[in-house]
Write a structure and sequence with these properties.
The structure is a single chain. By secondary structure, the chain is an alpha+beta fold. It has 2 domains: 6-352, 3-Layer(bba) Sandwich (FAD/NAD(P)-binding domain); 442-666, no CATH class. The protein is 46% helix and 19% strand. The chain has 18 helices and 20 strands. It has helices at residues 26-37, 66-73, 112-125, 174-178, 243-251, 254-260, 312-326, 336-352, 355-366, 369-389, 408-432, 442-465, 467-491, 515-535, 541-566, 582-606, 618-636, 641-666, and strands at residues 17-22, 44-47, 61-62, 87-94, 98-109, 129-131, 135-142, 145-153, 156-167, 186-196, 205-210, 215-224, 227-236, 264-276, 290-291, 294-296, 499-500, 507-508, 512-513, 569-570. A hairpin with a 2-residue loop joins strand 7 (135-142) and strand 8 (145-153). The two termini are 55 Å apart. Mean pLDDT is 79; it is low at 1-12, 392-406, 436-441, 607-615 and 665-674.
């Protein structure tokens, strides 16, 4: 599909412009400004339906995603951002009174009246051809492609032709509506109200989550002419009819009034639409971002975070990416639209599909009310424990000057780990009482472990290394383990001749239970992250790979005899080590080392940089717990003393290495479960 008409390369047909950009907000201005920066020879017209400065109803918040993108696209506005309203703090409040205080968040609040005007004036000053008070009433078509727009201004209606129309005209985009079905659009509404005279506060940008109606009320303070103002707002995804009622209920509540004091309302309560991003099963948006003769940017492309409603950074990114692709002569014309969309998706998917955002925003809203309250209460308890373990003082406040660096995914990981530890404790309590607190079926236990273990590892890996590495770790482990297991089951050449229990459901090709690759992921991550934590972030990758492999094989030596006893798998020919052939452990060592080396390489490419020594070592706790459990099982039930000894020695070695590291002055956090 050709994005731009053939005439752009062979300009024989008369047109008014090469490109017409509809919408002078952040997306449109960034696109045009980036074309100018790249010294594009294309003739471009930037249209805006109002005259600047003009208001744009919005939350006015700029997150850590937005600030660097603005400074990169508009270097001349470096003095504007960060503004005097900049804050490094954020507060997340959940009913019935739980608050999470986050620091180093890099947040700013600039009213769109000022922000959009600054971008527009910078674009005009750079040499852009613009037209204000020009409303686009419809788009023009020539056969199967868009070829221009009809505008209405003070001179009446007229048509302007071009080779490419760029839609940057917001959630109610005329270009979007004219170029495809809007049946799958996820359009919601929110309300905004300004107040002035807000008292000083140290909580930064504040979110009050409405779990009943799946929304939130916000307080975004900012400074205007030396006076403290705030942008207040409310939105939800369930019922637009009650927006005003919910807004005023929150506004008059004591939890909001304590932040507003004697603040006075300024202007009217105003609504605005949000065309939230919606993804298909294959990871693409429900509507393409391009077509014959048109391109969509920002809100017009539904590049609004589906959980938080944030859109400015993605509008700016999409404008910059579009300019980059269109001016790159190395990209064939027929592929530019697809490459633009692919690059935008590569930018937004890790943010829009972030487990951290889902866990903090959406999950508490989706769960039944009792479970939601239990989840938030457990996360709050884990957060307090983590802060106390790190010596942050009183866990409820942030005025002490300490900073919370624990990503929220680690709070949920701690909650899942708590469930895992409870399950292990429940097993031994039921065993001691000769009861049956846990399911006896192998299939139920296997599936339960896979679900809990995978959830914990994904949450912890996301908080510790970033979503990009966490997802890469998962995919790499699932694919490699499935291939190796299937070859091993078919040939017996890798681990020896063996087969899995037929009672375990969902078996690939009738041989490999689908939970097995997830088990590989869980134990690989336990070993990987434990070695990483014990050795420290400055250790060599080869050393981390070796220790990870040793931990993986140590677990296998402790656990495999128990799995044979439980009937999870069977070696018909038996083996020298409690019915398991030595070949199995040699294969684990070789494959484990190769996999850990590959994961260390992935870590260097995809991992974010965190101060690991500040993070409570949840994977170490998980690894120690499962190895200790298997060692006790080998002792008390399976009667496999060598396996038990290996497990207990491994636990002791990790604990000893930990305390030796502390005494050496590296000061890791104390080894305690949250």
């Amino acid at each position: 599909m050709k994005l731009v008409a053939e005439e752009l390369r062979h300009p024989t047909k008369k047109v008014d412009y090469d490109i017409i950009v509809v919408g002078g907000g952040p997306a449109g201005c960034t696109f045009v400004r980036s074309l100018i920066t790249r010294k594009s020879p294309l003739r471009v017209l930037l249209l805006e339906k109002e005259r600047f400065p003009r208001d744009k109803v919005c939350g006015d918040g700029l997150s850590y995603h937005a600030i660097p993108t603005v400074r990169k696209a508009f270097p001349e506005l470096a003095s504007l951002i960060p503004s005097s309203s900049f804050s490094d703090r954020q507060t997340l409040a959940y009913p019935p009174g739980y608050e999470f205080h986050r620091k180093r968040q890099m947040l700013d609040v600039i009213p769109r009246f000022e922000f959009d005007n600054a971008l527009w004036q910078a674009t005009v000053k750079a040499g852009a051809e613009t037209l204000e008070n020009a409303k686009v009433t419809r788009v023009l078509r020539q056969e199967d492609r868009i070829c221009g727009v009809e505008i209405e201004d003070r001179n009446g209606k007229r048509e302007l032709t071009c080779r490419l129309v760029v839609g940057a005209d917001g959630s109610r985009s005329v270009v979007r509506q004219a170029t495809g079905s809007n049946a799958d659009d996820y359009l919601i509404h929110a309300l905004r109200q300004y107040v002035r005279g807000v008292p000083d506060s140290t909580e930064g940008l504040i979110f009050f989550f409405d779990l009943e109606y799946q929304g939130y009320f916000w307080i975004f303070p900012f400074v205007r002419d030396g006076e403290r103002w705030a942008n207040l707002g409310y939105g939800n995804v369930t019922d637009n009819r009650i927006l005003k009622e919910r807004f005023w209920n929150y506004f008059h509540s004591p939890q909001i009034q304590k932040y507003l004091g004697a603040a006075q309302l300024e202007g009217n309560l105003t609504g605005f639409p949000l065309n939230m991003a919606r993804f298909k099963w294959n990871g693409k948006l429900t509507r393409p971002l391009f077509g014959p003769g048109y391109l969509l940017l920002g809100d017009a492309a539904a590049l609004i975070h589906p959980l938080s409603g944030e859109g400015i950074p993605f509008a700016i990114d999409s404008g910059a990416i579009a300019a980059e692709v269109l001016t790159d002569d190395r990209i064939p014309e027929a592929k530019k639209g697809a490459i633009y969309e692919a690059r935008v998706l590569r930018r937004i998917r890790p943010v829009f599909l972030s487990p951290a955002a889902f866990g903090a925003i959406r999950l508490p809203m989706l769960l039944p009310r009792p479970l939601s309250k239990a989840l938030v209460a457990s996360a709050n308890f884990a957060w307090k424990i983590i802060r106390r373990l790190r010596g942050d003082g009183q866990p409820g406040g942030i005025e002490s000057g300490s900073r919370w660096e624990v990503p929220i995914t680690l709070l949920f990981a701690a909650l899942v780990l708590g469930l895992f530890l409870i399950a292990l404790a429940g097993f031994w309590i039921s065993h001691a009482l000769a009861a049956s607190a846990l399911p006896s079926a192998v299939s139920v236990r296997a599936i339960g472990f896979a679900v809990i273990g995978t959830s914990f590892c994904l949450l912890d890996a996301t908080g510790r290394y970033g979503w990009s590495f966490a997802s890469a770790f998962l995919v790499f482990t699932l694919i490699c383990s499935a291939v190796v297991e299937l070859i091993g089951l078919e040939t017996g050449a890798i681990f020896g001749a063996y087969h899995y229990n037929a009672a375990i459901p969902l078996q690939l090709f009738g041989a490999l239970p689908i939970v097995v690759p997830f088990g590989w992921f869980v134990f690989s991550y336990f070993s990987f992250a434990t070695a990483d934590t014990v050795l420290g972030k400055n250790s060599r990758p080869i050393a981390r790979a070796i220790i990870s492999t040793i931990l993986l094989v140590a677990y296998d030596l402790t656990s495999d005899p128990n799995q044979v006893y439980r009937g999870v798998w069977t070696y018909p020919g038996g083996g020298i080590y409690y019915g398991v052939p030595a070949q199995n452990f040699l294969a684990w060592a070789l494959l484990g080392f190769g996999g850990m080396l590959a994961l260390q390489f992935l870590r260097r490419r995809k991992s974010i940089s965190l101060e690991d020594e500040q993070l409570v070592p949840l994977p170490v706790i998980a690894y120690l717990a499962i190895v200790f459990h298997e060692a006790i099982f080998a002792t008390a039930i399976n009667k496999a003393p060598i396996a038990a000894a290996i497990g207990l020695l491994t636990v002791g070695a990790i604990v000893g290495a930990w305390f030796c590291q502390r005494r050496a002055g590296q000061n890791p956090p104390p080894l305690s479960a949250p």
